[in-house]
Predict the 3D structure of the following.
Amino acid sequence: QVRLVESGGGLVQAGGSLRLSCAASVDISRFTDMAWYRQAPGDQRELVASITNKDNTNYDESVKGRFTISRDTIKNTVDLQMNALKPDDTAVYLCHAYRGVNYWGKGILVTVSS
């Protein structure tokens, strides 16, 4: 059974940094791609960053230059380094993996205060 568990969220001031980590219960190299999404209250879920099994990355325009996604196939984790955080980054961040089926973590709250 595939489980994705997020960690590293919390409260940070604007301009600060946080590092989110998603731990998978299986070998992540099996997934076609993994990603971080976020959902703010009242908003739709949106893609923040993704990484393929060939380490190709993709970022939403709003986070380019500030966020970095990476994966560790030994630890079976996918991390999201978030720098220069803004209040608009406040949301629940969810880990996603795809291998013919979509898998989701439960999400973790990131709050950026102004």
